[in-house]
Design brief:
Strands 1-2 form a two-stranded antiparallel sheet. Strands 3-4 form a two-stranded antiparallel sheet. A hairpin with a 7-residue loop joins strand 1 and strand 2. It is 43% helix and 8% strand. The longest helix is centred in the middle third of the chain and has 18 residues. It is globular, with a radius of gyration of 16 Å. The protein contains 4 helices and 6 strands. With 147 residues, the protein is mainly α.
């Protein structure tokens, strides 16, 4: 993981950049086992970079599937139910390991996003499509006055 780690932007790949919660949770657990904060700093830098970037839906909450660039800025606008569940697990674990209340806040916001995944008939919505009317990202692009 250290060899693959992006020192500037966090994460472990160049573009496209996926959140990879399994790696982040491993780093959090490994930190708890070893007490070596090197691993935690990699996970925390990645979590904070994801949160600050465009992969995070700052209006409706939740994470988009992946970032099309290496800085987490331009998302592929699709949101997946399982990604929200893994992100919830990862940010909750981050809170448990570090006590950082920002992670608790993120977990609570991800739960709000998950509320959108329930339909009145008791069914789950497994994903929110990336495009509306055949336009990539149109579902998640607003004017200033709409926000």
């Amino acid at each position: 993981l250290q060899k693959q780690y992006d020192l500037q932007n966090g994460g472990f790949e160049p573009a496209p950049k996926f959140p990879t919660p399994h790696r982040l949770s491993f780093l959090a657990r490994w930190t708890a086992i070893t007490g070596d904060s090197t691993w935690a700093s990699m996970a925390e830098h990645t979590l904070l970079s994801m949160r600050a970037g465009g992969i995070w839906d700052h209006v409706g909450y939740g994470f988009h599937r992946y970032s099309t660039d290496s800085q987490w800025l331009l998302p592929h606008f699709e949101k997946m139910l399982y990604d929200q569940g893994l992100a919830l697990w990862t940010f909750s674990l981050g809170y448990k390991v570090t006590g950082n209340s920002n992670y608790k806040d993120m977990a609570e916001k991800i739960l709000k996003c998950l509320e959108e995944c329930f339909e009145e008939e008791g069914l789950y919505v497994s994903a929110f499509n990336a495009d509306t009317d055949h336009e990539e990202g149109a579902t998640y692009i607003w004017t200033y006055s709409e926000i």
